[in-house]
Amino acid sequence: MENKRRETMETICYRELKERIQNGFYQPGERLIETKISKEMNISRTPVRKAISMLTVDGFVENTEYRGAVVADSRLTKDDYIEMLDVLGLFLKHAIRRIEVKKLPINYKRFEEKRLELDWALESKKERAYFYYGKSVLLEFVFYLKNDCYSEIVEDFSVKVEQFGTAEVFSIIENSGKDFVKSIEQILFQLGRKTILRRLKLLIKLRSGKFYLLIAKKPRSKKDLGFLAFK
Predict the structure, then answer these.
(1) Torsion angle, CA of 40/59/22/37, rounded to 10 degrees?
(2) What percent of the chain is predicted at pLDDT more than 90?
(3) Burial 96-106 (b: 16+ CB within 10 A, else e)
(4) Dmax over Cα atoms in the chain, in whole Å?
(5) Cβ atoms within 10 Å of 77's Cβ, excluding its own
(6) How many whole angstroms separate alpha carbon 202 and alpha carbon 114?
(7) CA gyration radius, the chain
(8) Exposure check for the chain: N or C terminus, fewer CB within 10 A?
(9) For the whole prediction, is pTM greater than 0.85?
(10) Exposure letters 144-166 (e unless 16+ CB within 10 A, then b)
């Protein structure tokens, strides 16, 4: 019973200290003093000590020789985020190019599921809905590069953003979320449009003993394209 209670207090202390670090309550280089924290949270020093150890493993805290546990400068700033977005943007362009050149079939149902998950998360007012949608969509596109290294980079970056992203970073993600969704829909629409045109131009039907090459008109809307390519 005591062990269960102690684990619970460790978890509570860990989350509280982590939130304080992420919110800037504790600044990089600031000491984390066990006695002070235990008094503030009205708990013993043992769960505080273990919580600090957990934060050290996760990269939020570092141990120094003379000052003890101090807050690590692990924040991912707006500039860091934008710089990494440029790299992920290159991955996305590379994936789209490979899909077009190799004429790879796209699993549109997977992307549709991601969009439905986003809609549900937004309706339920889930935190970081656009962040998780962006991560899942990028991983779907990177899959077509057939190189696990790209997927690992996306995963690692996502973990870093989730763990160390500042409030400003998540504000950028939230404010640009709708535009990102529209961009993805446009990309999928263009890829699907090219696919269906290519298929229809090569479609040959046997009619009255003769072969006819059907040259299709360009889809006029997403609804037309959806009927042809997304079913």
Answers:
(1) 0
(2) 50
(3) beebeeeeeeb
(4) 92
(5) 13
(6) 31
(7) 25
(8) N
(9) no
(10) bbeeeebbebbeebbebbeebbb
